[in-house]
Amino acid sequence: MQSLLYRFTAALIIVMGVSFFVHALILDKFFPGNAINSLGLAYVVNGVLAMVIFSVIYIFRKKLYSQIGFLFLAGSLLKFLVFFLIFLPIYNADGTLSRMEFITFFIPYAFALIIETISVSRLLK
Length: 125
Hints:
- InterPro entries: DUF6168.
- This is DUF6168 family protein.
- It comes from Galbibacter pacificus.
- The protein has one domain.
- It is built from four helices and no strands.
- It has helices spanning 2-30, 39-59, 68-91, 99-124.
């Protein structure tokens, strides 16, 4: 069963790495000069949070089996708190939250959430 933890970590690193590379290329090609400084931070923070949340769920999978869904939801709440505490002040520094700034956070969030959801469903079978 520990191979699921390794597969999750490998899948997360690969997906987040590829999506970061593609995301950075698209931003550079279509929005030159508007480079988002927090792009790398968004990918790292979402990836690390996904690893932590999945690891906690993995560790407590037998002890708290009937409450895994609540742990998963608590992890999503944690991600939103991080957005509001870390990223929103950065993005609102100019007084507005642009669509590009929101997407800069949301794309890595979505990719991490997809990998996390698939892995948790496999964990629960």
